[in-house]
Amino acid sequence: MNPRGPWKPLFGAMVALVALSAAAVTADDDRLSRLKVSRAGAGVPMPSFQLTTLDGKVIESSELAGKIVVLNFWATWCGPCKEEMPALDRLSRQFADKDVAVLTITNDPERRGIEHFMKQVGSSLPVLLDEQRDVSLAFMVRGLPTTVFVGKNGTILGRAVGPRAWDSPDAVGLIRSLREARP
Asked: Is 81 a catalytic residue?
């Protein structure tokens, strides 16, 4: 297609925008791949939920609209969860007061054990209690830790099963790129 007249500059701008968007998607796909984040379930809307934090605050998924969301499913008995929690905490601190929410979700029944775990790993991340396992089931969590990324538009971008260095340059670059992307 070769537009003529007043449409020609607009057509050129649209082609450039599509090329930039494709480059950003490719870069994000490369980062996801290097982090071994599966695209399984990508594009599916985030299941809605309402969970209470360890502090008694109610968090609803609707409050997360327009944010990049990183949900980490874990348990106190999970060694790999203990391994990756400090990196998640550091990732969260890098994006504090921005449009990124890093939340942890556990179905551990013992609140003192959860508090001890978080203190032991030095994490101040919010802990959401999934006591009935409804949210874990809705996100199809099969192994721990599982980390799910949700885009600003509320759709799942991908998931990682197993520990990762979530404060690595690839992970930080991914979050920055997702923040800059249009919803």
From this structure: yes
